[in-house]
Amino acid sequence: MLEGFRSAWSSFALAGIMLGIPATMTFAQHTSPVDGIWLGTLKAGTQSLRIQLHVTSNGAGNESCTLDSLDQGAMGLKCANAVLKGSRFSFDVPVVHGHWSGTLSANSNELKGTWSQGMPMVLNFERRSTAIAAKPIAYDPAMPPLTIADLKTVLDRDLAPALRDGVLAPQTGAGVAIGVIENGEQRILAYGTAKPDSIFEIGSITKSFTGLILAQMVAQGKVKLDEPVRLLLPPGTVAKPAGPGITLLDLVTQHSGLPRMPDNFHPANPKNPYADYHAANLYAYLAKHGVEKPAHAGFLYSNLGFGLLGQALANCAHETYPELLRKEVTGPLHLKNTTIKLTAAQKARVIQGHNAQHQPTPGWDLDAFAGAGAIRSTAADMLTYLKANLDPDALHAASAVGAAATLPAAMAMSHELRADAPAGMRVAFAWLYVPKTGTYWHNGATGGYSSFAFFNPKDGYAAIVLFNTTIGKKGSFADVLGAHIEERLRGKPAVSLGP
User: Fold this and answer.
1) Where are the alpha helices (DSSP H) in 318-447?
2) Is residue 484 within 8 Å of residue 495, measured between CB atoms?
3) What is the C-alpha separation between 246 and 254, in angstroms, rounded?
4) Which 3 state secondary structure label does DSSP give 489?
């Protein structure tokens, strides 16, 4: 999708939530014992994903690597922070928010360790002499740029294989709600078990709302972007660091250096893993870890960081995160079905979520991590939200007071590009930005849902994809469908939606 992002759309999948190495590449010289090609299998539930790792080092001993998810067609995912100390080896894969750490065997032919991407999973590698090539991604031919008038006809045709015997087939229980806006006109479509007004978990798209809350509070003079987050925590929670402290801007741009997840995250119920992680747990982790910003901290996707940001802003406002969300964003935008706590009537409209094996699975409840992924919404509400992002100036009203009065400036602030992100992208307030197309985007996934949102102010279009199934073996269908829709809007070859 998203032109420069096309190689990345499937990457937010590796077992839970995106450029290529030639298949014949070999490493004749080993300047470190971990240099070479490695192959492992990641088992997540009943799924098995082949993971291929390419490691090199330079003469100074600095390690670098790329990772391939062969069964998902996600190739050449760049590593960061690759470090070999003795027999211990570790690396991050920022674009999929993952971390691996483990040990090199005595004979240097095995790497045994753990992949962490929300939940830790065993991932061991064996050395190989040559790399395995992934299957090429299939594309449907280009057609003239899609208009709203033709949206249903084109998507009915393009989704037919998925509805017949793919991810939306009747036996899967799956349903998808799609909202598209183009030059002021909008449409909402529903397929499978979904209805136009079905309520879904939106997962990490929540982070864009948390970013907008921050922008609102800056616009209102309540906080400053360079404010250390430590000052918004209860007194005595964490010591003042010796060096620069993590700021609110660091958190909202994923440049805090904080890991994806805290090491004291041990859910009692894996099917609802965030429910028992509370502010006290978060503060206990921070007291041990500290809040000093690492030198040269680059982009590192962190659910922990956004959970901390949401909690800190709520502390500052003396409100809960759900109350702050309603006051600063959903209330002024009249998003009546965008919420964390559902009414009885809303609960009746929640579409059943499904795991990767298409089995019904319970929803997720987030407490200290609310700012990272707790929101539920509908396609209509999300289109209203994206429409506001397309044209913040349209929100101006002479009669606006309170949070509604600051919202236009805050929305514009949340789009300001602040730092670099993977794959040549930039990052604003949570939103990732593709310079080649001018598109902002974010995706999300929980245990039973996945989602994708994008908007392009330059060309006047936006879309939301809400899917009641989490990421599967082939990656995120919500991401693929989102990619497909934008490629259709741009008149480009569109990634195929077939089985």
Assistant:
1) 321-325, 344-347, 370-373, 379-390, 403-414
2) yes
3) 11
4) helix
Q: Which two tokens stand for residue 216?
A: 């609102």
Q: What does residue 385 show for φ and ψ, rounded to 5 degrees?
A: -60, -45
In three-state secondary structure terms, 24 is coil
Q: How far apart are the C-alpha atoms of 280 and 368, rounded to whole Å?
A: 9
Name the residue with tokens 């509370």: 278
Q: In angstroms, rounded to a whole number, what is the distance separating the alpha carbons of residues 118 and 104?
A: 24
Nearest to 12 by CA among 117, 137, 138: 117
Mapped to the 3 state alphabet, what secondary structure does 187-211 carry? EEEEEECCCCCCEEECHHHHHHHHH
Tell me the pLDDT tens digit for each residue of 86-104.
999 999 988 777 899 999 9
Q: What would the mean pLDDT of 370-385 be, rounded to a whole number?
A: 98
Report the Cα 416 to chain-centroid distance in Å. Answer: 19
Residues in the chain: 499
Task: Return the H-helix or E-strand segment holding 281.
Answer: helix 279-289
Sign of the CA dihedral with 93 first, then 96, 102, and 107 last: negative
- Cα–Cα distances (Å) from 203 to 209, 347, 429, 438, in that order, read 11, 17, 16, 24
What does the pLDDT look like over 59-91, one tens digit per residue? 777 899 999 988 777 788 889 999 999 999 999
pTM of the full predicted structure?
Answer: 0.83
Residue found by looking up tokens 């870890």 in the block: 289
Residue with the two structure tokens 């795991």: 355
| Three-class secondary structure of residue 50 per DSSP | strand
Using the structure block, give the residue that is written with the tokens 């922008």.
215
Q: Assess contact for 447 and 467: CB atoms under 8 A.
A: no
For residue 151, what is the enclosing H or E element? helix 151-165
